[in-house]
Model the fold of this input.
Amino acid sequence: MVMPVVWWDGRTLPLICQEAVVASSYPSLTHALAEALVDVLRFIDGSEDEQMDPDDAVNVLEGVAHVVSTLPDDQRRELIVLIGEMAAVEADPARREFLVEFPEAFGLIDDAP
Done:
């Protein structure tokens, strides 16, 4: 069934309504966003100079590190636990390593002694 959707400016966009509901493979929005964040950061971290300006890459990585390192303690702990759970079930060794290193690399925990 096709139903028009009216945008704020009066334009219309056909919207296809599907009967089937697709279930998310993530248990929560937080988990889905953490998975997406890790994938984006891993891509940026592994980008060649031709793919992304190195200065821009560093700015993005440092920006994310600043945001997550300034989370309240309970949210930092929640993210550390979630990243640990993700690492425990990760089949890709390179992604698992990125996940294991994530809390320290992005300032969620203090540097190792």
